[in-house]
Amino acid sequence: MQYRLFTFFILFFTFFLTQAQEKTDANIQLIKDFIQQVSIETISPDVILNQHVLLKETSTDEEYDYLEASIEEIRVNLQTKNIDEIEYLTFNSLPKKETNDIDLEGKSVDHIYFLKYKKRQMLAIYITENKIASFTLVAKENNKARFITY
Fold it and tell me: pTM (2 decimals)?
């Protein structure tokens, strides 16, 4: 009886880990697709936003214009980089000292990713509902950073 229970536990745990890894892989692929499109100058920021970014809280033209400008800024930043050398890292894979100053505000660390190029952080991304909910990490008044969702 104990052997069956142990076997069931191992199978369940393996299934859970497999599901979590598949979700992480899917999220990283979503981010890679986003970065790939941003790096192509002929793809307009409007198209990128509509395909990859969750825009639930963006209600004004000014907010949308800000997001388009942010895409252009990421594009300029990518021009000097070989995108094949970008590292895509999970929140939990980073040392605590690199994430201590982030106020999660209830967001799951399983949906937060960091992009590094040559060991330097270049972008932080929060994913929800299979879309990018934020690529904007801003400092708050208490020396903590938070994601701005769109």
Answer: 0.84
